[in-house]
C-alpha cells in the first residue's frame, strides 16, 4: 500500500485511527534490457504514474458508458470501480480499504443524507429570499426517478474515483493532505468550466463548495462510498427539484422559476453558483477537515516527503 489508510474492523468511520503509510514498494528486479523496464516500472508505480494510469482507465470507461441507455451508466460505474481496484492493487501495489464492500451501504446512505440536506437547505433559503419558486412538472414520476438515479450514480462514483480516489490520494502522498485538497478542489472547479452557463465565478464556487468539501469529506471518512453518496444525494436532489446540475438541465419532478440576482440564484448555471450554498459548503468543509485532523487522518507534508524518500 502506497498511501495512508485507516485501519478498521467495520469500515472507516469517525472513530478510526489514521495510520502511517506502509513501507515503500520493493524495487523492481533488473531486466535483460539494462534496467529500462525496471525504471519504467518505478515511474508507473510512482504516485503520479498510478494516478495518470487510473485517470485514463476510469475516464475511458466513464466516457464510453456515461450517456448509454437504461442501466448502462451504472454498469459503467461498476466497471470503473473494477479498473480502479486493478490500478491500485497491480500498479500502485496498495490495498483499497476506501472501496471495501463492508459498510459501503451505510457510508453511502450517510453521505447521501448530507448531500440531500445540503441542497434542500440551500434551496429553501434561496426560496425564502425570493430567488426560487417551484411547481409540479407533471412528468412521469417513475421515469424521472429511474433516469436520475442511473445517471447520477454513474457520475458520482466515477468522479469520486477520479478526483478523490486517484488524484487526492496520489497528491497527498507527494505533498500532504492539505496541498492535495486544494489542488484537487481547484481542478474540480476547472473541470466544470465547459458546462453550459459556466464562468470564472461558477468554477470558483464549484471548487470551494464541492471540490474542497468532497475532498474534506474523503479525508474525514477515508471512504469512496461516503463521498459518492454525498455527491449522488446532492446531484439527484437538484435534478428532481428541476434545478440545473452544474449548468445541465434535465427533467425533474418540479420546474423552478428563477427570480432576481444570479448571486442569489446561481442564474442559468444552477444552485452551485449561488452564494448561499457556497457559504454552507465551505462551513461543512471546514467542519469535516477539523474532524479529519482530530481523527489523525491527515498526511502531513513532511510524512509525504519521507514516503517519497523511501
Count of runs of 4 or more consecutive helical residues: 11
Biggest sheet, in brief? Answer: 2 strands, antiparallel
Order of helices and strands: EEHHHHEHHHHEHHH
Radius of gyration: 20 Å
Strands ordered across the widest β-sheet: 1-2
Overall mean confidence score, pLDDT: 88
Given as residue ranges, the uncertain stretches (5+ residues, pLDDT < 50) are 1-32
* Alpha-carbon distance between the two ends: 13 Å
Shape verdict: globular
Note the beta-strand portion.
under 5%
SS class: mainly alpha
Describe the fold and architecture.
By secondary structure, the protein is mostly helical. It has a domain at 103-309. Helices cover 63% and strands 5% of the residues. It contains 11 helices and 4 strands. The chain has helices spanning 36-44, 47-65, 72-91, 104-128, 141-175, 177-191, 200-221, 224-241, 262-265, 275-294, 301-309; strands at 6-7, 17-18, 132-136, 254-258. The protein has a two-stranded antiparallel ribbon. α2 packs antiparallel against α5, α5 (141-175) packs across α11 and α6 (177-191) packs across α7. The longest helix is centred in the middle third of the chain and has 35 residues, at 141-175. The protein is globular and about 65 Å long. The two termini are 13 Å apart. Residues 1-32 have low confidence and may be disordered.
Amino acid at each position: 500500500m502506497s498511501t495512508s489508510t485507516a485501519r478498521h474492523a467495520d469500515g472507516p468511520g469517525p472513530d478510526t485511527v489514521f495510520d502511517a503509510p506502509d513501507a515503500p514498494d520493493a524495487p523492481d528486479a533488473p531486466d535483460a534490457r539494462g534496467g529500462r523496464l525496471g525504471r519504467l516500472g518505478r515511474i508507473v508505480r510512482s504516485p503520479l504514474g498510478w494516478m495518470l494510469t487510473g485517470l485514463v482507465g476510469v475516464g475511458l470507461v466513464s466516457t464510453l458508458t456515461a450517456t448509454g441507455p437504461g442501466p448502462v451508466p451504472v454498469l459503467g460505474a461498476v466497471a470503473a470501480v473494477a479498473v480502479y481496484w486493478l490500478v491500485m492493487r497491480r500498479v500502485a501495489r496498495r490495498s483499497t480499504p476506501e472501496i471495501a464492500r463492508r459498510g459501503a451501504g451505510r457510508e453511502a446512505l450517510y453521505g447521501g443524507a448530507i448531500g440531500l440536506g445540503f441542497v434542500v437547505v440551500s434551496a429553501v433559503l434561496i426560496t425564502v429570499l425570493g430567488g426560487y419558486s417551484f411547481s409540479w412538472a407533471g412528468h412521469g414520476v417513475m421515469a424521472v426517478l429511474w433516469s436520475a438515479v442511473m445517471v447520477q450514480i454513474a457520475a458520482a462514483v466515477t468522479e469520486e474515483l477520479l478526483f478523490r480516489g486517484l488524484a487526492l490520494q496520489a497528491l497527498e502522498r507527494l505533498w500532504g493532505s492539505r496541498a492535495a485538497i486544494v489542488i484537487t478542489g481547484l481542478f474540480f472547479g476547472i473541470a466544470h468550466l465547459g458546462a453550459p452557463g459556466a464562468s470564472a465565478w461558477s468554477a470558483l464556487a464549484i471548487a470551494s463548495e464541492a471540490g474542497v468539501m468532497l475532498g474534506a469529506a474523503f479525508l474525514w471518512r477515508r471512504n469512496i462510498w461516503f463521498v459518492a453518496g454525498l455527491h449522488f444525494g446532492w446531484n439527484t436532489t437538484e435534478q428532481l427539484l428541476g434545478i440545473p446540475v452544474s449548468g445541465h438541465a434535465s427533467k425533474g419532478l418540479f420546474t423552478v422559476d428563477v427570480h432576481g440576482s444570479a448571486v442569489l440564484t446561481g442564474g442559468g448555471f444552477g444552485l452551485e453558483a449561488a452564494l448561499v450554498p457556497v457559504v454552507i459548503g465551505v462551513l461543512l468543509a471546514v467542519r469535516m477537515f477539523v474532524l479529519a485532523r482530530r481523527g489523525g487522518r491527515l498526511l502531513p507534508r513532511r510524512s509525504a516527503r519521507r514516503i517519497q524518500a523511501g
